[in-house]
Specification:
233 residues, 7 helices, 39% helix, binds NADP nicotinamide-adenine-dinucleotide phosphate
Length: 233
């Protein structure tokens, strides 16, 4: 395995942070980012190892390249950040929609643009989408749209960045993630009843799938659902 940085955008919390912990524990240099410099530095310290934190707002894409200027060679770039936007087209919140669309589509792309010169033929990019792309719900208009766009972006990025590999991971609701750990029991049970493995997927399973997509050098252009068979129901 190469020796450059693992950069995890949206690595201060949740799935990104769990993946950062896994790579830091294995001795990699890790960069975690979030919106706030202080919070990113605190997360890096808590993760430990050779980890550092950088703060920037993906919804302000013009600021991104400067904030990444002293990141060295990059083996693996993970784009996991999200600001969830609950938005129905009948009660449309333009500001919320603009932030999420900018963050996931322009922000993710600008991070890749800024770090691309520091990647080599063994490097890989992993973007996080989600299964709202296939299973919309009232209020998911923006989330469904951006996750669908992540799915499409994989294809063009594979071509534009070749031989760098690009994949995306689309989790179902991850039961032990900070976003969902405290969900009402009724909702939890309803989700489990529609999940063939009889439970919700876990952060550890998402980390395992992420590392497979990043590290297996034959895997390119894949949109992987990590859902315990939910899409089969
Ligand atoms: N959790 C799930 O069950 C689930 C299900 C389906 C899909 N996903 C996808 O998996 C990914 C991770 O989800 P998660 O639940 O682990 O997320 P999370 O716990 O809400 O964490 C979000 C991360 O994004 C960062 N962030 C938020 N807004 C940002 C911005 N404007 N600029 C830069 N960084 C920003 C946050 O950093 P700060 O707070 O430090 O700013 C934090 O590190 C997301 O892309 C999500 O769509 C998750």
């Amino acid at each position: 395995m190469a020796s450059g940085n693992v950069v995890i955008v949206g690595g201060t919390q949740g799935l990104g942070r769990e993946l950062a912990q896994s790579y830091a524990d294995d001795g990699h240099e890790v960069v975690v980012t979030g919106r706030d410099q202080g919070r990113a530095e605190t997360a890096a310290k808590e993760i430990g190892g050779d980890t550092r934190g950088i703060g920037f707002d993906l919804a302000d894409p013009h600021s991104i390249a400067d904030r990444l200027v002293d990141v060295g060679e990059v083996d693996y770039l993970v784009l996991a950040a999200i600001e969830r936007d609950t938005n129905k087209v009948t009660e449309y919140d333009i500001e919320g929609a603009l932030r999420l669309v900018t963050l996931k589509l322009v922000g993710y792309s600008e991070v890749i643009h800024a770090l691309h010169p520091r990647m080599d033929e063994h490097s890989a990019v992993l973007m996080f989408g989600g299964l709202a792309r296939d299973r919309p719900y009232p209020g998911s208009t923006t989330v469904t749209a951006v996750n669908g766009a992540v799915t499409s972006m994989v294809r063009t990025l594979v071509i534009e960045l070749a031989p760098i590999r690009v994949n995306a991971l689309h989790p179902a609701i991850v039961g032990d993630s900070p976003q969902w750990i405290d969900m009402p029991a009724e909702r939890h049970d309803a989700l489990v009843s529609r999940t063939p493995i009889g439970r919700l997927v876990t952060m550890a399973e998402v980390v395992g799938a992420s590392r497979f997509l990043l590290e297996n050098e034959a895997i390119n252009g894949i949109n992987l659902a990590v859902d315990g068979g939910w899409l089969c129901m």
